[in-house]
Amino acid sequence: MEDKPYDEVQFANARQEMEKLAFDSLKGRKLPVNAVFAKLSDVTKAIASGTVTWGRKNSLWPMQFGLACCAMELLDFGSARVDAERGGYLLFRGTPRQTDVMIVAGWVTKAMIPEVKRLYEQMAEPRYVIAYGECATCGGPWWESYNIIKGIDQVLPVDVYVAGCPPRPENLFGALMKLQEKIGGKIVENKL
Amino acid sequence: MGETKINIGPVHPSTHGVLRLVVTLDGDTIRKVEPHIGFLHRGVEKLVETRMYMQSPSYMEKIDYVAPLSYDELYVATVEAALGITVKDRAQYVRLIQLELQRIASHLLWLGTAINDIGQLFSVFMWCFKDRDIVLSLLEEATGGRMFYVNQRLGGLNRDMAPGFDKHAYKALDYLEKRIGEYQEYLESNPIFMERMKKIGIMSKEEAISLGVTGPTLRGSGVEFDVRENYPYYVYEKLHFNTQFENGGDCFARYRVRINEMKESIRLIREALHIIPEGDAIGMPIRLIGPQPKEKEVMVRRELPRGEGMMYMVTEGQRPYRLSIRAPSFINTAILQHLPKGHRLQDLFPILASVDTVMADVDR
Asked: ipTM score here?
């Protein structure tokens, strides 16, 4: 096949070559017998960590999880005008096991706390939470209500807060960009 | 074969919010559906009692977040009835235009999400949201808010329509009319859509009336009832309004009613923009101490996009003593216990979608 972008023979030998490289780098060192594998995994980690961070940063899959009003703007975020695909956040998944980001869009009632917690626990690590809108940030207009918790951060660790009632879809774009900075290791400065 | 119980929700992509359904299945056939509600309850009716009259519209908008303006208007109309205030002539027209725009936005959102549920026709979702954004930007131009407006004041509005609004509106309405026709043409020639909507979830006329269903769900069963025509408010009498209804009683009829309602709304807005009088539409500013109520108890009914909404208010000085809300979604959700019986499990979602519930409206 001429279409393939790689040499087939090289591809078949790639694993052997990588192992050889890794062993070469360890040549001449005095190591205990069992430590070879540990060191090998260290080498792999070192090679991979940059790539993993880069990949993690650029393919954030949000959960399709709408609670209340802000979920309408969440739908708008995924649709034609805002076009979330530009940032790599398009794939809204129905199951928490396939997602990286939970966008809490709406107020969380006392009946809903166990469900939200459970969804969060079902997500694979590393997982991130965005509190989208007033209600998820601090309780918002329902501050005095008897059935609402005052902010999702009383239950889950929140990475990014988005203010507004409801925030425009563009604000969510901004929030996810902040989250990317955070994952990439840049310190998010407060420029105010 | 034994019966199986499965749980759907409260967080499920197709339940349009946090509705939990416990479905009893015999093989693939539905024997029983139990809706569990209350995951979004936050006590609006109680909170309103602690507020002055005109502090509450912001709460009211969040009851039904797909059509916030309709609830806002319903609440302000209730307060106006209690305080004995008449709405200015021009403001009546402007309110009607905004209400109908809101109805189009609401139905477009319904169309997009419902069709996404039934057959993964994701393109329609994208188109509908693109068009809904056009309506929302029109409303933003008219009121100043993208999603929540809080534009109603006693006897009028906070802001009148911006100059040049009618020009933009005519242009947008022409576009929307063309688009809605295209959707109808596309969907009704799509075999997946027709197979999943036709003859699914049939509700007879008697059943619909006895269950207390309202709105497009009722009119899909062949009942010609619309508050806008039967108990007209504002200037619906002056305009040539026709109630849209279909005789099928199935999911397709309910879809058809909504499509026709959008077309009717477009026609109504055009007509209203044509004959809107010049003048003042600005209502009373919000004061710490407003006018005293004249009525002890009032009830107002309105045709919301999801059905008939009513508000019953008992007044006491500067704040409501009790406000009771008849939310259309709450009563429409009850038919989920009856309609899916005997259908296959996959037909549950077209039925659920065709009822068009908003869970915040159900739980309040």
From this structure: 0.80
